[in-house]
Amino acid sequence: MKRHVERFGIKDQWFVALKHGKKHDRKSSRRVRYKEATLETVNESIYDHPKYYDLVFGTDCAAELKFISHVNEHFLNSKAKHLFEPACGTGRLLYGLAKRGFNVAGIDLNEKAVEFSNARFKRHGLKPTASVADMSDFTSPRKFDLAFNTINSFRHLTSAPLAKKHLNCMAAHAKRGSLYLIGLHLTPTATDPMDEESWAARRGHLSVLTNMWTVERNPQKRLERFGIRFDVYTPTNQFRIEDELCMRSYTDKQFAKLIRDSNDWEIAETFDFAYNINRPVEVDDSSEDVIYVLRKK
Ligand SMILES: C[S@@+](CC[C@H](N)C(=O)[O-])C[C@H]1O[C@@H](n2cnc3c(N)ncnc32)[C@H](O)[C@@H]1O
After folding, report:
1. Ligand 1: does its nearest atom lie under 6 Å from the Cβ of 96?
2. What is the pLDDT of residues 97-106, one digit of tens each?
3. Chain-centre distance of CA 113, in angstroms?
4. What is the value of pTM for the model shown?
5. What is the fold, at CATH topology level, of the domain defined by 61-187+250-296?
6. How many Å separate Cα 111 from the centre of its chain?
């Protein structure tokens, strides 16, 4: 059975209106027609569009920021000084944590995302700290106390050797006892995995509707392909960006084995995407959204 969820985090009524082909413009109290069928489409990487990516994923990161701070308090007695994010993207979390007083650094493969992150830091009088690098092969002069890699970025490492190289590289840059949070969607084996998600975000006159769906699951090769589209609406322009993402899949057991085999890391605790530090969860074959708290041995 196909499972589909629509996340109406921010402007739910408005999104429902959009889905039905009409937008209610609150300011002017006019009903504006919106023509989905005529959207011009470009096939490009969504990561090459940091402005839209950051709106889609950056408007609602309060829970993630709070959770990272709570992990520091709960597991490290608030002693974490240096925070690190591999695959930091637009730096939406780095910026939020820098504002909370942490020393942060990040790397990402995508130059445009790194540029976007550094520009935001500079705009707000902060020293830019993101750089272009591959998370499976990087060096940094500084070791971290707490690192985080949320919303499936880890799964961009599409083979076992790459995932292992990344964990080794992270361990080489981690102090003893430091923590690494990995947030990802597992493939449940006891239930059907989610097949489609839609959500909406708006900032000022810019709105982006996002839809993500499964194209193919190949459990033998441990690869999953997803279609993703951003429908971008501004008062003067409307268009669609369509992309395909390829990710390595993990069941709960496959992920646990990867960590066991790494020799450098152990699973200290597990949470779900409720980001509630007081509510750890038990991961099993029906788990889907999981945040692993890894501890450097
Ligand atoms: C889903 S985004 C997450 C970005 C950011 N962590 C966030 O929470 O918004 C995934 C990011 O991983 C980056 N990425 C993919 N493969 C990478 C690699 N091997 N090394 C570093 N970054 C990578 C992409 O460029 C993209 O910015």
Report:
1. no
2. 999 999 999 9
3. 13
4. 0.89
5. Rossmann fold (3.40.50)
6. 17
